[in-house]
Amino acid sequence: MSARLVLPLLLLPAMAGAQGFAGLGTEAGAFRMPERGYAFDFPADHGPHPGFRIEWWYVTANLDGADGATYGLQWTLFRSALTPDAAADGPGQLWMGHAAVTTETAHHMTERLSRGGIGTAGVVAEPFEAWIDEWRMAGPSFDDLTLTAAGPDFAYDVALSAEGPLVLHGDAGFSVKSAAGQASHYYSQPFYDVVGTLTLPDGEVAVTGQAWLDREWSSQPLAAEQIGWDWFSLSFEDGDKLMGFRLREADGGAFTAATWIGADGSAEALPDGRLAAEPLGVAEVAGREVPVRWRLTLAEKGLDVTVAALNEQAWMDSAFPYWEGPVTVTGSHAGRGYLEMTGYE
Amino acid sequence: MTRAGLAALLSHWRRNPLQLFTLIAGLSLATALWSGVQAVNAEARASYDAAAATLGEGQFAQVLSADGGAVAMADYVALRRAGWLVSPVFEGRLEGVRVVGLDPLTAPGGLGPVELSAGAEVGSFLGGAGQVFGTEEALAALGAVAPEKVVAPDVAPMTVLTDISVARDLLGTDAPARLLVAPDQPLGRPPLETVAPGLTLRAAQDGSDVSRLTDSFHLNLTAFGLLSFAVGLFIVHGAIGLAFEQRRLMVRTLRALGMPLSRLVWLMAAELAALALVAGGIGVALGYLIAAALLPDVAATLRGLYGASVGGALEFRPVWWLSGQAIALLGTGAASAAALYRIARMPLLAAARPRAWAMGAGGGRRLQALAGAALLALAAALLLAEGLVAAFALLAALLIGAALLLPALLDLVLRAGAQRAGGPVAGWFWADTRQQLPGLSLALMALLLAMAANVGVSTMVSSFRLTFTGFIEQRLSADLYVSATDADEGARLLAFLEPRAEAVLPVVWVDTEVAGLLAEVYGVRRDPSYPENWRLLVARGAPWAAVFAGEGTIVNEQLYRRAGLELGAPVEVGGGARLPLVGVVGDYGNPVGQVIVGEALFARLHPEATAQRFAVRGDPAALRAALIEEFGLPPAQIENQAALKAFSLQIFERTFTVTGALNVLTLAVAGFAILMSLLTLAGLRLPQLAPVWALGLRRAALGRLELVRAVLLAALTALAALPLGLALAWVLLAKVNVAAFGWRLPMYLFPADYARLGLFALVAAVLAALWPARRLARTPPAELLKVFANER
């Protein structure tokens, strides 16, 4: 899921609306642009790409607690470069971390910011480590990671182990975002098994479940007229998975794209117009109306499902506020996943 | 009709310009002093707010280096990576400007008064050459620096805010001075000492430390402002009452011509309101001038006494403009309510009796004397109460009570004088003086208050100065004071100095809390200079021997009083240890508590603390030369005793300039009140003087007697003011100081000063009486004769 197209940090108030959500429609200038045909080189590409303006490491997980409850978990690190020539570990980088745990009745979230160049945040490809303050995603390899984060009222410490291959979205990882050709480099690891512990106000909970990691980097991923997006990452009970997004335009139009991922890791890119996403109901969240029930249809896969939020109030009240939370899927395919929505004012 | 009525009312002022002047001048002066003080207070408060917002001081807990030095950047990173949400603050001085570097991404209070809104600004703040934010004054003082200068009026005075990377370059240091601790911390944070053993956590203070400390100072100023305002209102009350009384005939005529009473009253109220607004406007403008003249000294005082930084330039603030106008209106209302009421209730054909009014204004004298006595009794009762509010209430009760008693007291003295008078002229003089007393009593009360304040405050200031000078002499007993920039240099300095000097006393301390109050624990080396030079206020046994042996502790008076400590009782000295209190030492001019323990014990309790400052005894010139040439110490790190003393004393010289200036102003207002009262009475007294003249007393002799009378009354008032002033000084020294600063000062008497002040008061009275007396001496005989011809 999620080309979580967030931020040049702190640029929000002046820019939202004018140039897409969080300034993501801002001209790239001297920054590098994604190129079709780029050949990924792992593990190097797990690390930062400083020539590009923005980049993220984005984990969401659907978890089952030993107490029988269902949980959602988020761990995100964003990198934003102030200048095109900033070194990956130099002072020209700004870093932002978001962490959240969502239950049916509560949504705990917290945010961290850091400058580059002093060691409080960064990413190293091998052995893989991504960190901001005491939060870490690290392991001997990208297939075997430990994920930790903490806020004033929650914490988690979970292990991720990959049970399938990396998945490249779009054209071999070149993911187009608008008719005008804006794009990003985008790959996922949707096959993590998770085991670990959540610390919540009521105490610790042992959890197991599945996680999905997104990696994306770009310099101007949105077209100027694109005002927000609705992003789905769904795992069905039969083992298939779907990443799909709808980018909303100011004139009411939309651009959609999706990747159908087989249980074996095979990926099929579905271009604009194939996936249809239709809001079924809205909830008032943080003083605005946000669609928290959706109908998704994808004719060539016989998909016609309803996607509903586990907790309608999964609002990320951060520097760039957005909605991000676990969802359940019913209809032609049953399953669960994560939904991210931005640009709802 | 309304217009005709208004014209008639206003014509009164045209015919009595002096009265109009008295009214406007009295009200303007009162408003000026009041709003001047308010302006100073508002400016100071705004500066504290800006400082608190700029630096987050007091609002947030802080992590500091235990040895008093800077925090290593590596420790900051280690803390963040362990889950401590701390934010670095770089701090230092450049060209007299405080340079503060904050990290906008992690600072819990953001950038305080500076808002980074648009993306481009964040880019320039964090990247490239950077930006510095400050007031124009601060930016100008900073001189030529690389970063872009941005004017931000809300940044604290003489301070610039910038990003930590810019501050690091400007200040040439890689280490933050301290770390701010965010109020909300994540779960699972390890203890500070396991992450960074050399650092200590200082809790956030309740409220702003600075504003709590300085409140007493501002209360002091406000009390002065109120006193001046009250004196001014005496004048206004007199002027309005007289004007209304004189206009009774006019009111009678207007009503006889058909003007409704209600409209007349409204017109008079409107007229007064207009006058009040004009006078208030003048007063606020004057107040602005006063405040602008005083502010630099207030700023110096606050910096010296409390370490609070206040801008030296006055900003125009609508709040105190409005408050000045409002208080002028309110004051006029209070001063005229009775007069308006009397007009409203006046029988249609009542005659004007201005003289009777003037004499009756002091009426209810017995009631007044009783109220005065009751207030003095209240003051006596308040002696038992504790705290700043009680101390100020005591002051108020004492001053107002004494003022109310003054007319009765003077009357008593004059009656005694009359009984002893020989000869008809003397007899008439005493009787006439007594008879004039009611008309003058308000002015004399004002004089009493002004003089008492003068005596009281000058006694306090001079006592303070004597004590403080002696204290500085005792304390700064070493010949040189040398400081190092870090622990390593400190150790090398000590090794270098020890063979070359007679004695080297390391000055080493850690911050701690005693009974919930911020305090510094000092470790002192065994040295005879402590028992020789440090005067203990209370002590038991051999206090210094106990301290050197690690068996007792000495604290400063502030801490002793604020924490309510007792001799012999255990005191926390940090590191979980407690020692019995063996002595209390005077420590004037220091807002923070001090705890003194022996060097060996200190080193055991606080092994992380290292001395970076040394008091050195020996030949100052030789030591200085050796330090600079052999050791290579920059001269800026060596201070000699004489310079330090001069600097400390200079702070205190400026400290009380403000109170001194307010004193002079209050005395001037009182002098003005006497002048106006005498002038007013002069016109009304002709009927009493004419018979005396007719009996053969020449006009010149009458004029001389007027002068003598003024001097007599002023002298009597001055005599009464002396004991009142001394009582005031005692309250200030023994009550207000203790509550406000935490130290009690011994009271010294300054008879020469009091004599000089008394002389000033007499001169003021003579000057005030000169004009009325001269007018009397030159009254044409025809005017005096008219008294017998005209019906009044």
Residue-averaged pLDDT of chain B: 78
Rg value of chain B = 33 Å
Low-pLDDT segments, ≥5 res of chain B: 206-213
What is the CATH superfamily of chain A?
AttH-like domain
SSE pattern of chain A, N- to C-terminal? HEEEEEEEEEEEEEEEEEEEEEEE
Helical amount among residues of chain B, as a percent range?
55-70%
DSSP helix count of chain A?
A: 1
SS-based class of chain B: alpha+beta
| Oligomer designation | heterodimer
Strand content of chain A: over 45%
If you average the pLDDT of chain A, what whole number results? 89
Biggest interface: A-B, 30 and 26 residues
Number of helices of chain B: 26
Domain MacB-like periplasmic core (chain B): 442-627
Protein name (chain B): Putative ABC transporter, fused inner membrane subunits
Organism (chain B): Oceanicola granulosus (strain ATCC BAA-861 / DSM 15982 / KCTC 12143 / HTCC2516)
Membrane topology (chain B): Multi-pass membrane protein
Write up this protein.
The complex is a heterodimer of chains A (345) and B (792). Chain A contains one helix and 23 strands. With 345 residues, chain A is an all-beta fold. In chain A, strands 1, 2, 3, 4, 5, 6, 7, 8, 9, 10, 11, 12 and 13 form a 13-stranded antiparallel β-sheet that branches. In chain A, strands 14, 15, 16, 17, 18, 19, 20, 21, 22 and 23 form a ten-stranded antiparallel β-sheet that branches. In chain A, strand 15 and strand 16 form a beta hairpin. The radius of gyration of chain A is 18 Å and the shape is globular. Chain B is of the alpha+beta class. Among the domains of chain B are: 195 residues, no CATH class; 146 residues, no CATH class; 139 residues, no CATH class. The longest helix of chain B is centred in the middle third of the chain and has 52 residues. Chain B is elongated, with a radius of gyration of 33 Å. At the A-B interface, helix 1 and strand 4 of A face helix 3 and helix 4 of B.
